[in-house]
Amino acid sequence: MRRLSRLILSALLLAATASPVTAIGQSGEPRVLVKAFLLKADKTFDHATGWCGYDSLCTLTVGDYEVGLGFFMGNRSYRLRVASWDGDKPCCFFANGSDETSVGSVRPHAEVLYYRTNSGRLKLGTLYIALESLK
């Protein structure tokens, strides 16, 4: 499991160098490079990179999903939300059952995402987020 995590974080770093970086969906002064990697349950993946400002709500399009980050508490933590590509409704939820979660650190982080089904939940995959400050 630890080796898989290292492999995914390495892929995140590689994706950041190989993909174009845009400022779509961000406001405020860009200060953070956000790298997102979604490893789906079927072993396919999507990734994206983008700029964010600490004083802004920032969104990244990762495959068919909009990943939203909102920074607070002196830039050391942020709120994370994932919605379907077509709008505001959350497409999925986190392990705690919420459609939004707090991340208490800007270190690389992983969150498991689930779809709601009539019989409970179905795993979408794991979202890996890495932030790189421009300071």
Short description:
The protein is mainly beta. The protein contains one helix and nine strands, in the order αβββββββββ. A hairpin with a 2-residue loop joins strand 3 (57-62) and strand 4 (65-72).
Topology:
Elements: H1 2-18, E1 32-40, E2 45-52, E3 57-62, E4 65-72, E5 77-84, E6 93-94, E7 100-103, E8 109-117, E9 120-133
Antiparallel strand pairs: 1-2, 1-9, 3-4, 4-5, 5-7, 6-8, 8-9
Polypeptide structure, described:
The protein is mainly beta and 135 residues long. The protein has one domain (2-133): Beta Barrel (Porin). Helix content is 13%, strand content 50%. The chain has 1 helix and 9 strands, in the order αβββββββββ. The protein has one helix at 2-18; strands at residues 32-40, 45-52, 57-62, 65-72, 77-84, 93-94, 100-103, 109-117, 120-133. The protein has a 5-stranded antiparallel β-sheet with strand order 2-1-9-8-6, covered by helices on one side. Strand 3 (57-62) and strand 4 (65-72) form a beta hairpin. The longest helix is centred in the N-terminal third of the chain and has 17 residues, at 2-18.
